[in-house]
Amino acid sequence: MDRVPVLKLGDLLIVSIQIDLQDQSVLALQEDLADKVVETGARGVIIDITAVEIVDSFIGRMLSTIASITRMLDAETIVVGMRPAVAITLVELGLSLGGVRTALNLEKGVALLNHLDGARAVTAR
Amino acid sequence: MTSPSELPISGNSDVVLIRQQVRTVAVEVGLSLVDQTKIVTAASELARNALVYAGGGRVRIEIVHNNVRAGLRLTVSDDGPGIPDIDQALVDGWTTGNGLGLGLSGSRRLVDEFDLRSVPGEGTLITVTKWAR
Ligand SMILES: Nc1ncnc2c1ncn2[C@@H]1O[C@H](COP(=O)(O)OP(=O)(O)OP(=O)(O)O)[C@@H](O)[C@H]1O
Ligand SMILES: [Mg+2]
Question: Membrane-spanning regions, if any (chain B) (predicted)?
């Protein structure tokens, strides 16, 4: 089974999916991310799916699960780079990716995380 | 390429191979990028169902023609427990596992033709077709 690498960049974790996702790889990624968020104290996770050609119900459910898990560990997950054909197919499949924040690309994803972090700092005051 | 082809569904890596093969044939048939994505996604759902609920099965991938168009047809079959209530299985959100219950109902929306036959105790046969526009 191929493992998807998780990279640390400052206080962010970056995951760029470059392989054809097999179910086991998706499950492993979920566990790796949970561990890494706690280990590094990351405040955000960006999952780049630019290279992902399809998101089916299994992969979609895992993206939602990852977002819920990291949120519980005080880190926000943003999915970036979804292809238009993938978005159209997901909606028709009936998957809403509830609770998953998205941004068009990596740069916008980082900007969104910074914005969310700012909002969080204000609320905490 | 050689058409039709038949691939086994006996492990998770087969699901990935099936997706790749369906993509190749979808391009060959001339499906649009969106339609390629839809039929590959449907193939992934149906193959995973065969694996999870029937312990495996097989998929036939073929190019078909009607009077005006070419299309891609997938026939996913297994010798598993079958589906006792097909109407119920096709309801969004219905699951006996721990999925979202969207695989069957969602796949039906993603294709142009969808046919599901199942005999309890004998197995399930699902045929889907996507026509090039
Ligand atoms: N090949 C099959 N053999 C036997 N039962 C099946 C088969 N395919 C589907 N089913 C039954 O139909 C139900 C609905 O299937 P469907 O693919 O829509 O949802 P799911 O697999 O439960 O969840 P999801 O696909 O959203 O992850 C399944 O829970 C299962 O009970
Ligand atoms: Mg399913």
Answer: none
What mean pLDDT comes out for the span B50-56?
97
Atom of ligand 1 nearest to the CA of B96: 29
Q: Ligand 1 atom 20: the closest Cα is on which residue?
A: B101
Q: What is the pTM of this model?
A: 0.94
Instruction: Please write the tens of the pLDDT for every residue from A70-91.
Output: 999 999 999 999 999 999 999 9
Query: Is the per-residue pLDDT at A2 higher than 90?
Result: no
Task: Please report the ipTM that was assigned to this predicted complex.
Answer: 0.93
Smallest Cα distance from A26 to chain B, Å: 11
CA A28, B58, B56: angle at the middle one, nearest 5? Answer: 50
Domains and CATH numbers, chain A: 6-124 (3.30.750.24)
Which structure tokens are listed for A61? 């459910």
Contact yes or no for B45 and A56 at CB 8 A: yes
Which tokens hold the place of A118? Answer: 């700012």
State how far the Cα of A64 lies from the Cα of A59, in Å rounded to an integer. 9
Does A56 contact B48 at a Cβ distance shorter than 8 Å? yes
Domains and CATH numbers, chain B: 5-131 (3.30.565.10)
Instruction: Name residue, tokens 């649009």.
Output: B32
pLDDT at A96 (0 to 100): 86
d(CA B125, CA B132) in angstroms, rounded, equals 23
Q: How far is CA A63 from the centre of its chain?
A: 6
Report the pLDDT value the prediction gives residue B2, as an integer from 0 to 100: 54
